[in-house]
Every structure is written in C-alpha cells, then in structure tokens.
C-alpha cells in the first residue's frame, strides 16, 4: 500500500509518514553518537571539511536537508550520509586519504546520496520486500493451522523469524547502499568534482587506497569490501593515475584525526595500519617527538608481524582466513603463536629494536615528554629487562604525575615485582 | 498429550536459549570475594520488528540503558559489595573519552567471548590494563560491562537478551560472563521487569560478592 503523504512540520515537501519517521530517527542516531562520545571535535578540521564541501553542494536542496559534516572516532574506513544532510567521515578514512581532492571525492559521493534521496528509496524497497515476506509468512501460518499439530510447530517456528532480517532502520545507511545506488553516486560524484575544479581521477585513487587495507577487518562496509571496491574502480571512467598526491593543507587539517586514530587502530588490532599512520605523521613532522613516540608504540605492539601483509593474506581467501584467525584468537594467543615461528621471531626482534630506537629518539628530543618512558617501560618489561623497565616507569610517573595512566603504571610496577609483563 | 509435551519443550527451549554463566577459575579457586564494583553505562539496541521490517527505538533505548545500568547496580548491591553505577551525563570529557575507549575494547573482546565463553574459565580473555586508566574506576576492583538486544515483535512477546561481564579493574582480565534471556510483554516499559532474570544470572556469582 502506498503510504499517505504528509507535510513536514519544518516545511519539507511531500514526505510520507515513514520518511518523516526516518528523518526523526536520524536525529536520534546523531544523539546516540554524541552520547557514546563517538564524535571527534576539531575546529580546524571541521572548518576545512566544510570549506572543501562548499563547491560540491547543490544550490537548492530539500528543506529537510541541513548540511553538516561530522567526524566519527572509528578506525573502520567508512563514510556515510543520513538523509537529513549529515555526512559522517571516520577517523580511519581521514587517516587513509592523501589530499583535498580525495576528501572531495568522498564528500561528493555522499552528497549525491543525500540529494538523490537514496535513503528514502532504499527504505521504500525494504518495506515493500518485508511486507511481501510477512504476507508469505502469514499464508504459511494460515495453511499450518489447517494441518493441526504439525502446523502448530511450524507456525511457532515461522512466527519466531517474522521480519527479523536486516539492521534496524537507519543503521543500514552506515554499511552502504545497493550496487546500483553506489555506482550512480560515483558517476554523479565525478561530475561534481569536475564542476568544482577538483581532479575526478582522485575518486578512483581513493577507492584504490581503500581496497589495499593492511590489516584484516571483520566488519564489512561499502568502503571495506575489497572485491566491490575493485569492481567500482574498474567501472569508473576516470582511472586512477596511481600518483600519490599528498597535499599539505589536507595533512595540516587532518593530522589531529590521524593522531587520534592511531590508538584506535591499536585497540582494534590494526597494528600495521597504526605503524603506517604514525610513520606518515613522522615523515611530515620529523621534529614531532610525540609522533615519534607513537610510532615507537605502534612498532612495539606490531611485535611478531611484518609491516606489510604477507602474500597469502592479500588474496580474498587469505583475507577471509586472517579474519577467521582474528576472531578466534586473542591478541596474546596470536602473538604467542607467531613468535614460535622463525619469521615471527625475526619480526619481533626487528620491530622491538625499532621501537626502542624511536622511544629513545623521542625522549632525547623532548626530555620532558612522558610518553616515550611509558613505552620503554612496557618494552623492557616484555623483554625481561626488569630494572630498566622500573626506571622508565618511574621517570614516566615523575614527568606525568597527574596523568590518567598513573594507576595503570603503578599496577605495572607492582606486577614487575612478580615479573609479569604488561601487554 | 503430545501437544502439551510439544509446548513444554518449545517453552523450555526459549527459556534456556542463550542463557549461561561462566566464571574464571582465578575467582572460583581463590574463593576470593569481590567487594567493590563499578557498573559501566549499559549499551543496548532495542528494535521493533513488524510486517514492514525493523525499526530502531532509539528514544526508548536511551531511557532503557539508564534504567538497566541502575537495575544491574541494584541487583549487585543486594550482596555486601560496594556498588556504584555512574550516570553517563555526570562524566567529564576526559572520562567520557576513556569510557568510550574501554567500551570499544570490550566490544572487540566480547565478540570472542560470545563465540567461546568456556575459555573464560582459563582466564583467556583480557581487555588489557587500559581499563585502569578510566578515572571513576580507580577506587573499584571490578567493573561490569552491560550489553543487550531487545526485540519487540508484532505477534508475540518482546524478547530481551542481556549480557553481563565482570572484569578485573586492574589488569582487565575477564572474571565472569553471564547471559540471560527474558520473554515478556512488559520489559520495554521498564527495565525493572528484568530484575529477576538479572538476579538469576548473577546467582552463581553471588557467593563471591
């Protein structure tokens, strides 16, 4: 049945009741992100993203659209738009992009989803499909009741599965639309980029970057499905030039988000990505002791892994196997099994040596910076160099007496007395 | 007669589906008592499933999360443990950020716990000592993570599946994990309806409180 059309209180043109409900839910979803401290606030970055988006925005938009660009604290490479005009970019995505043209390509793609009303279209299709499914289920229940006892069991079984498919609206917008919608958004994005004086080939370049992730990722989104990304790159009229176009204004604006994303990567076991991001920070700011210390920490936790994924992990089957291992084993178990191999042991030695040098360099450059001493303490603790670990932790406590990590370090110091190494 | 038997079997299956309690042997062997507990803000998803698909009940979810956190705190404090459940809106920016971090680390580990909860006994799961950086937990020895999914279905009772995980506040080791399911019409109106289910799921843990 076609839903009745109603005028939106804010003056939106002819929206149906479900569409109005979707807009309301989008606002609540934003509140949920705020409530869970997932929104990353950085005035310079926010201004920069708004400035890049300006030339891409249409002159006229439906009255329910209010363009807003928010950054989510999320290591997953992702971006999505809500039908009310709010566009989310993850810190994981910002850490991967290299230039304003690439940022513009992602924004143009998401802006197109909003202006085309893709969320409403997908909602309509979803409701239609679910209605058909429910009617079919009711028919089974009706026929089952005629069959008596056997029918009762069947009735209860089908009823239990009634309309339970899919994420609750509007969570599906976070993992992407259908292939057709995505392809159309790419095509429109290319036109928008050309019109705004941006390089359209950078859409292809940014999709290629997303398809070359360094760590296995169990959560699947439009931006992390390698096969789909490769297909989309192949479909684009403007192939990537393959050039790395790192630009200074983009990096200056995004560096806070990149820094923020490194510990998120580490917490999510994206150790290779953490090393790559921290190395990027250090390459751009060789005198930044904090970034050097972050790179040291990333190398320390990379431990028995290589900085690039091994050849067997680069195939689709290899990636699936890596994800399976990731889901099955804890990080401690994974470290232990890798360290038992010759290659793993060699990587461990090399990465820890690298970490120690980086921590020392950061401590020498900025003697009052506490972080390198915490890193050295953890590294020496893991290597069984207990006295040195204790000394470094004490230095850390002296330099950062009010740090939130105070209790953690004191716990580690007590643990060192029992010679148990921290993570 | 056979119909009655079938109904009993079906209802028993729904009562026990997903329910389970797992304790770390460090807790059971040492016969240690847990004296101080901090309940972290619950994170739940409540969705309505109808003829035209599913819909997230986000407004109701906020209220439900707050109530559930309070109910878990109340159930734990029935014993002699000192329990605190910090309301989310009373946290400062730094604590909120740390809280978001440890909730995220927990979500990563929980995916593994749900797959193989039996490994808790051997102390295989840990969130790492990052948990000790969360300021409000500094005077507690244990923290509790609360998760849940609620489903409201058109033709039947609502179903809520909740999970409670107790973690050592010093080193992040998972001490206990409990899962419970509640089929009832009334839980969406108030999380208090879940009290008895939470109490049951904490029953095995009670001797250590």
Write the layout of secondary structure elements.
The complex is a heterodimer of chains A (423) and B (209).
Chain A: E1 5-6, E2 15-16, H1 17-35, E3 39-40, H2 43-54, E4 68-72, E5 79-81, E6 86-90, H3 91-96, H4 100-116, H5 118-146, H6 149-160, H7 179-195, H8 201-210, H9 226-235, H10 248-267, H11 271-284, H12 289-302, H13 316-328, H14 331-339, H15 342-365, H16 371-382, H17 386-399, H18 406-417
Chain B: H1 2-16, E1 20-23, H2 25-30, E2 36-39, E3 43-50, E4 53-56, H3 58-77, E5 82-85, H4 93-115, E6 142-153, E7 158-168, E8 174-184, H5 195-201
What does this structure look like?
The complex is a heterodimer of chains A (423) and B (209). Chain A is mainly alpha-helical and 423 residues long. Chain A is 62% helix and 4% strand. Chain A has helices spanning 17-35, 43-54, 91-96, 100-116, 118-146, 149-160, 179-195, 201-210, 226-235, 248-267, 271-284, 289-302, 316-328, 331-339, 342-365, 371-382, 386-399, 406-417; strands at residues 5-6, 15-16, 39-40, 68-72, 79-81, 86-90. Mean pLDDT of chain A is 83; it is low at 1-11 and 147-166. Chain B is 34% helix and 28% strand. Chain B has five helices and eight strands. Chain B has helices at residues 2-16, 25-30, 58-77, 93-115, 195-201; strands spanning 20-23, 36-39, 43-50, 53-56, 82-85, 142-153, 158-168, 174-184. In chain B, strands 1, 2, 3, 4, 5, 6, 7 and 8 form an eight-stranded mixed β-sheet that branches. In chain B, a hairpin with a 2-residue loop joins strand 3 (43-50) and strand 4. Chain B is globular, with a radius of gyration of 18 Å. The interface between A and B is large, with 55 and 56 residues.
Question: Key terms for this structure?
Answer:
heterodimer, A: 423 residues, mainly alpha, Serine Threonine Protein Phosphatase 5, Tetratricopeptide repeat, 4-stranded mixed β-sheet, two-stranded antiparallel ribbon, 6 strands, 4% strand, globular, disordered N terminus, B: 209 residues, alpha/beta, Rossmann fold, 8-stranded mixed β-sheet, 28% strand
């Amino acid at each position: 049945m076609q839903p009745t059309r109603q005028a939106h209180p804010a003056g939106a043109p002819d929206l149906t009741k479900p569409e109005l409900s979707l807009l309301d839910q989008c606002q609540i979803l934003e509140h949920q992100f705020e409530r869970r401290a997932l929104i990353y606030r950085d005035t310079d970055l926010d201004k920069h993203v708004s400035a890049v988006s300006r030339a891409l925005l249409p002159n006229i938009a439906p009255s329910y659209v209010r363009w807003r660009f928010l950054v989510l604290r999320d290591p997953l490479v992702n971006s999505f738009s809500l039908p009310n005009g709010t566009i989310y970019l993850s810190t994981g995505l910002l850490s991967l992009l290299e230039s304003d043209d690439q940022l513009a390509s992602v924004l143009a793609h998401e802006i197109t989803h909003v202006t085309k009303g893709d969320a409403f279209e997908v909602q309509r299709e979803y409701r239609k499909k679910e209605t058909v499914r429910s009617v079919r289920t009711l028919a089974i229940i009706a026929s089952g009741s005629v069959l008596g006892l056997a029918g009762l069991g069947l009735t209860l079984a089908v009823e239990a599965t009634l309309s339970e498919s899919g994420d609750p609206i509007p969570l599906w917008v976070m993992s992407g639309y259908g292939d057709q919608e995505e392809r159309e958004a790419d095509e429109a994005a290319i036109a928008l980029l050309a019109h705004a004086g941006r390089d359209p080939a950078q859409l292809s370049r940014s999709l290629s970057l997303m398809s070359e992730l360094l760590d296995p990722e169990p959560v699947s989104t439009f931006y992390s499905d390698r096969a789909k990304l490769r297909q989309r790159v192949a479909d684009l009229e403007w192939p990537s030039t393959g050039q790395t176009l790192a630009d200074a204004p983009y990096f200056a604006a995004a560096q806070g988000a990149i820094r923020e994303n490194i510990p998120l990567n580490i917490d999510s076991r994206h150790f290779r990505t953490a090393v790559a991001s921290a190395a990027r920070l250090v390459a751009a700011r060789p005198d930044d002791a904090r970034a050097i210390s972050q790179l040291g920490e990333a190398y320390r936790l990379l431990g028995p892994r290589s900085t690039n994924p091994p050849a067997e992990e680069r195939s689709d089957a290899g990636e699936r196997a890596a994800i399976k291992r990731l889901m099955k084993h804890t990080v401690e178990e994974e470290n232990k099994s890798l360290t038992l191999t010759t290659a793993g042991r060699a990587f461990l030695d090399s990465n820890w040596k690298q970490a120690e040098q980086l921590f020392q360099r950061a401590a020498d450059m900025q003697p009052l910076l506490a972080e390198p001493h915490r890193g050295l303490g953890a590294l020496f603790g893991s290597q069984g160099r207990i006295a040195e670990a204790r000394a470094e932790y004490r230095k850390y406590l002296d330099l950062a007496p009010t740090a939130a990590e105070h209790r953690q370090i004191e716990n580690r110091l007590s643990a060192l007395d029992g010679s148990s190494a921290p993570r | 007669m056979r119909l009655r038997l079938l109904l009993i079997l079906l209802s028993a299956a729904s009562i026990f589906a997903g329910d389970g309690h797992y304790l770390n042997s460090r807790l059971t062997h040492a016969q240690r008592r847990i004296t101080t507990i901090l309940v972290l803000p619950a994170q739940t998803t409540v969705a309505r499933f109808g003829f035209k698909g599913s819909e997230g009940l986000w407004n109701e979810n906020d209220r439900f999360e707050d109530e559930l956190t309070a109910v878990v705190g109340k159930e734990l404090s029935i014993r002699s443990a000192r329990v605190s459940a910090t309301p989310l809106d009373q946290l400062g920016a730094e604590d909120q950020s740390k809280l978001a971090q440890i909730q995220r680390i927990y979500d990563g580990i929980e995916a593994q716990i749900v797959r193989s909860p039996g490994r808790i006994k051997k102390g295989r799961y840990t969130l790492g000592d990052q948990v000790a950086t969360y300021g409000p937990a500094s005077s507690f020895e244990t923290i509790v993570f609360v998760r849940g999914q609620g489903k409201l279905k058109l033709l039947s009772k609502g179903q809520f599946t909740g999970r409670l995980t107790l973690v050592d506040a010093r080193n992040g080791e998972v001490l206990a994990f409990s899962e419970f399911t509640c089929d009832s019409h009334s839980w969406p109106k108030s999380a208090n309806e879940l009290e008895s289910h939470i109490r049951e799921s904490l029953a095995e843990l009670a001797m250590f409180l």
